[in-house]
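Readers outside the structure-tokenisation community will struggle with the description of the input data as it stands. What matters is that the chain and its backbone geometry are given together, residue for residue. For illustration, here is how one protein appears when written out as sequence plus structure tokens:

…
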Amino acid sequence: MTSNTTSEAAKKIVRTNTEQVQGQGDFALFEKLFADDFVDHTPQPGTTPDKDGVRVLYHRLREAFPDFNPVIHWQTVDGDVVTTFKTYHGTHRGTLFGIAPTGRKIQFETVDAMRVRDGKITDHWGVANLFSLMQQLGGLPPVS
């Protein structure tokens, strides 16, 4: 860990982002948790690889799924990188990726790695099961 951020403190910062920013829509907290020079190494469609891009993504998810609820299954720390496996749940009430609201309940898994330095999230790498999400929203045919 750089500076005085411990492994447990880093996990808490990432957990707080997941539960309070993503899950509860606390965007004032988002501004405090993310470094201004944040870099998203795996940006989602229609976003930019910076803090603004993540802010846009989080707002889109909250608008599409007002009851957006992440469940963290596990976290681990390697140096200054916190890896989290989680499942997102929600009800499709707003347009997402061009798909009009369906009212369907969805869930999809994500693995994120976030670097925490000096108490701020500075980098992100992630894999979200968007294929499963798009199938659940009717944007892709089911695999048989």
